[in-house]
Amino acid sequence: MLINDENVSAKECIWRAWCVYRDTRTFTVIKRLTYELCSYSPREIVPVLDPVLSKQCGQLTNNITMETIECIMTRKSVRRFDETKPIAKDVLDKIVRAGFAAPSAVNARPWHFAVVTNRALLDQFAEKLPYCKFAKQAPAAIVIMGKSDKFLKAPFTPDYWIQDTSAATENILLAAHSLGLGATWTSCYPGERVAEVQSILSLDDTHIPLCVVPIGYPVEGENSKAKDKYKEEEVTYFE
Ligand SMILES: Cc1cc2nc3c(=O)[nH]c(=O)nc-3n(C[C@H](O)[C@H](O)[C@H](O)COP(=O)(O)O)c2cc1C
Question: For the purposes of burial, counting CB atoms within 10 Å of the CB of 101, is it exposed (0-12), middle (13-18) or buried (19 or more)?
Answer without folding.
Answer: exposed
